[in-house]
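Deliverable D5.2: sample structural annotation.
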Amino acid sequence: MQLPAYTAAKRKGWVSVGVDGNPEAPCRNKADYFFHIDLKDRMGIAEKATELKETIGLDGVFTCGTDFSSTVAWVAQELNLPGIPYQTSLDCTDKYRMRTKLKEHGVPCPQFREADSDSDLTTLISELSFPLVVKPVDNMGSRGVITVFDMDSLEKAVNEAVLFSRTDRAIIEEFMDGPEFSLDSLIYKGKLTITGFADRHIFFPPCFIEMGHTLPTALPEDQKEEIIRVFSDAVTALGIKNGAAKGDIKLTSKGVMIGEVAARLSGGYMSGWTYPYASGLALVEKGMMIALGMDPGDLHEPVNRTASERAFISIPGIIENIEFLEKAHSVPGVKDIFLRVEEGDSVDFPVNNVSKCGNVIAVSDTRDSALAASEKSVATIRIRLKKNTDSTRTFLEQSLQTEFPPSAYDVFLEELEEFHPDFSMKYASHPVPVPFKENELMKKDWHGISLKELMEEAEQKGVQFAGDQNWTLFAKHFWHAALRGGIQGTDWFLKENEE
């Protein structure tokens, strides 16, 4: 997520210094200087920054797409560089402090409570209503975030969230219904300018997995203006007067509510990729200018296009190979494919936004064509899994009605209602009946691949389909694997039975 910042520095002729707790950080070679310092070590980073200021000069400190704005603010405050006060950054990084600040200023947000592993949860939530959402107070990417519907699930969820918290704390808040939106903004000398307004596409409850975003939003203008008004009130309440602010906002049945506000530009490819593609404005560069004490200048958007980002995921297993990336990249309108996994990696169904396999970004002059390009690209990619893998077998043997992880296709088959598959066995190939109506064959999985397309690929691998055949064990296992695991499940099952 820092790549656009290093690119901007090169373009502007600025000297860049990178720090990271990972000595193999992906962008380390993009920086003019790199130091192996953990981002949580604000004292160590400030010490190094002081040394740099005295030797080569230092004019600003910046991050985008990561929840380390408090480290940025600490260094800026210690070295008298442009930025926000350290206490303000804590209010924006700690979700409990943020909620408290918003409530004090009358900014709409859900009812909430702070918790840890020793909390008396029954007493704590006595005035809250289920469903509830549990989160670590200080993490990002939906790590440790889950919806719970009863007391039996709450304790486990709190303990899980605490594990993802740097301060061993969680926040419990009432669930907000309705669609979600991401906003980016720059604030210069107290004036806020919206620099990105996207529709977020959230799936797979009780988790909150963002399977993509589309920018700009398709909301009517009056709803868009109300969201911007509430977001602006939140930024003011949190005291962000110079820098950047990113908001996740819900349009609920009770009106607009703040999900969260961070004192930085967004991650998830929005600030560095989709917004610049759609608007023609180099947003990260403008944010860096403010961090350097410079006037960002004209924030007018020179072009008006649509950018569509979509994620691709995997069922559990070990990757054997990844196919058709070049074909997916050649889809007209596709600008980027970001791959997070490689051959030999263990993969799982995502429970947060950092456990996806990759992302596609497409851009076009129209919303429909941008959406079509990103969706076609995602549907082209194939992540093949190794056979004889217990995690894949366990996933595929689960009931087709499993709530989470869900099955790839929401289709009921009477023939499989009482069926309990055993994928440890091998089954001789037989013709497979096709028990679906035409409209059911058009049903799509999480990557937009229809059952009809799945059957066409299976035929290429030697599967014979016939409408009047008996339901052999091979046929039952084939359709269970296909409906549960999609193309991946189908491929895996056929490889298991090759011999």
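Annotation notes: The chain is about 35% helix and 20% strand. The longest strand covers residues 191-203.
The annotation will be released with the project's public dataset once the embargo ends.
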